[in-house]
């Protein structure tokens, strides 16, 4: 048997230096309710092995974008975090106002006006069993990292999408933004392995669900914007905001209606436009589906109008901006 040395606390701190990696420069700051403090050294951004989020995925999270110095749609993200927490009987360690204070303080410590903020509420440290009652105190972690460019910035021609071969998540798991993203990881892997940008999931009835970390909707040839019904997908904050913005376009020549409905693969193939929405992708155009062009095979007018409106909303709408950097 190979002898592995036992590390003292001092050894551990010293040896930790060996784990510095170039990609860690994208990690700006982390708050932990365990320390009730913030660190900016990536090597200190740690979660204990006995937090049930590590070994059971027992936690919920949100990813919120800070752009132009302001968090976008924080209220909607905190509402969804609350809804996810309630579904798992997770009690926040802080009130909503106290959580917000800690999120804003972590973002400030990160010192980047363009950043991604991930907020986690976890079952917390306890034992290593599955029993949540082992854990006396739920925890909050907040991690601020770099923000990637929205998809269309680097891919102005639009996205290639294909049907996922994976089974859809059960509705309960799909609607709760919980820390078990193994099915989502497998969808992303599927897309990368197939050389496409996104995959689209379908439920057992053949109805469109969502992508790995994005919602999907379509524009019909008679100008209706339709997203899947909400019961079996994550209710995307971007999707819901885009639907609100889209209602303002009705009757102005681009759209006749904004709806949710059960959508099939045939509906997708016959659509005039395929839209992909999410915090990191904004409103992205799906221009090819299962190897065939969608509509004219180029980004369409509804995607362009909604993506532009979303950007204006992010930059200028005080109702959905929480300004952190002046
Ligand atoms: C499974 C899933 N669907 C949809 C979305 C889009 O949600 P949002 O627009 O709030 O980013 C996400 C976001 O990460 C997701 O993980």
Key descriptive features of the protein:
15 strands; single chain; 10 helices; alpha+beta; binds pyridoxal-5'-phosphate; D-amino Acid Aminotransferase, Chain A, domain 2; 2 domains; D-amino Acid Aminotransferase, Chain A, domain 1; 8-stranded mixed sheet; 326 residues
Provide a compact summary of the structure:
The chain is α+β, with helices and mostly antiparallel strands and 326 residues long. The chain contains ten helices and 15 strands.
Describe this structure in words.
By secondary structure, the chain is α+β, with helices and mostly antiparallel strands. The chain folds into two domains: 10-145, D-amino Acid Aminotransferase, Chain A, domain 1 (2-Layer Sandwich), CATH 3.30.470; 151-316, D-amino Acid Aminotransferase, Chain A, domain 2, CATH 3.20.10.10. It contains ten helices and 15 strands. The strands form two sheets. Strands 7, 8, 9, 10, 11, 12, 13 and 14 form an eight-stranded mixed beta sheet that branches. A seven-stranded antiparallel beta sheet has the order 2-1-6-5-3-4-15, with helices on both faces. It is globular. Bound molecules: pyridoxal-5'-phosphate.
Set out the fold topology.
Elements (H helix, E strand, L loop, with lengths): L8 H8 L10 E6 L4 E3 L12 H5 L2 E9 L2 E3 L1 H14 L8 H15 L4 E8 L16 E7 L5 H4 L4 E5 L7 H5 L6 H13 L3 E3 L14 E5 L4 E5 L8 H11 L9 E5 L3 H5 L3 E6 L3 E8 L2 E2 L7 H16 L4 E3 L3
Parallel strand pairs: 7-8, 7-13, 10-11
Antiparallel strand pairs: 1-2, 1-6, 3-4, 3-5, 4-15, 5-6, 9-10, 9-12, 12-13, 13-14
Helix pairs in contact: 8-10
The structure holds pyridoxal-5'-phosphate.
């Amino acid at each position: 048997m190979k002898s592995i040395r036992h590390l003292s606390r001092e050894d551990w701190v010293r040896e930790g230096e060996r784990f510095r990696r170039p990609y860690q420069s994208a990690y700006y700051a982390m708050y932990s309710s365990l320390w009730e403090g913030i660190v900016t050294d990536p090597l200190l951004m740690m979660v204990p092995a006995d937090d049930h989020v590590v070994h059971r995925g027992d936690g919920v999270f949100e990813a919120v974008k800070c752009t132009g110095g302001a968090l976008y749609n924080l209220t909607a993200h905190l509402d969804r975090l609350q809804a996810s927490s309630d579904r798992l009987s997770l009690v926040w360690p802080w009130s909503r106002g106290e959580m917000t204070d800690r999120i804003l303080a972590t973002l400030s410590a990160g010192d980047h006006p363009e950043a991604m903020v991930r907020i986690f509420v976890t079952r917390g440290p306890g034992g290593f069993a599955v029993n949540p009652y082992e854990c006396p105190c739920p925890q909050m972690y907040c991690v601020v990292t770099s923000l990637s460019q929205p998809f269309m910035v680097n891919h102005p021609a639009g996205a290639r999408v294909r049907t996922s071969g994976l089974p859809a998540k059960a509705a309960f798991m799909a609607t709760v933004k919980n820390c078990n993203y193994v099915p989502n990881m497998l969808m992303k892997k599927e897309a990368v392995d197939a050389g496409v940008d996104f995959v689209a999931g379908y439920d057992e009835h053949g109805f469109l669900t969502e992508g790995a970390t994005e919602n999907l909707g379509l524009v019909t040839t008679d100008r209706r914007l339709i997203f899947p019904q909400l019961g079996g997908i994550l209710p995307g904050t971007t999707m819901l905001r885009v639907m609100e913005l889209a209602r303002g376009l009705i009757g102005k020549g681009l759209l006749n209606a904004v709806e949710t409905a059960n959508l099939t693969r045939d509906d997708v193939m016959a659509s005039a436009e395929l839209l992909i929405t999410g915090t990191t992708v904004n409103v992205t155009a799906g221009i090819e589906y299962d190897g065939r062009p969608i509509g004219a095979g180029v980004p369409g007018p509804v995607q362009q109008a909604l993506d532009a409106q979303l950007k204006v909303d992010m930059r200028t709408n005080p109702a959905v901006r929480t300004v952190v950097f002046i």
